[in-house]
UniProtKB/TrEMBL annotation:
The lineage of its organism: Bacteria, Pseudomonadati, Bacteroidota, Flavobacteriia, Flavobacteriales. Gene3D superfamilies: Transcription elongation factor, GreA/GreB, C-terminal domain (3.10.50.30). The keyword Protein biosynthesis applies. This is GreA/GreB family elongation factor. GO terms for molecular function: DNA binding; RNA polymerase binding; translation elongation factor activity. It comes from the Bacteria. Keywords: Elongation factor, Protein biosynthesis. Residues 66-140 form the Transcription elongation factor GreA/GreB C-terminal domain. SUPFAM superfamilies: FKBP-like. GO terms for biological process: DNA-templated transcription elongation; regulation of DNA-templated transcription elongation. It holds the Pfam family GreA_GreB.
Amino acid sequence: MKSCLSYAMKSEAKKKVMSQNNIILTTGTYDLIKDHVRRKKVTPQEEELLLSELKHATQVLRKNLPEDVVSVNRKVTYKDHNTNQEKTILLVGPEKVKVSKNKISVLSDEGIAMVGYKVGDLIEWPAKKGHLKLEILKVEAEA
């Protein structure tokens, strides 16, 4: 019972953090995530958090997206605080995933957690495979 209460408190804390740090999404990424939630491809906790993030998100055209914001077709270097490892991935649409080449879907656990956040942000996310704690170190446009 204690772990459920602990998880609920973490979820509540995440919601408070998100309302202070609104994410920035391209209109295409916004629509993709909204459709993903609508199709019930996420857990109830993720659905609640994503709907809150989408409600407060700033939508921009791709050409107006700040360079340091995580988005589709951007190379992202992040630190996984659970494993203490750094990883570099290319965030792609779900149809272009190639895990062997570190091309990870924006709809994956890591993608959903980081999209819209910027360099320096530390994100805690209740993913399907366990609680994520990721810090965005670097964001680059695809070469």
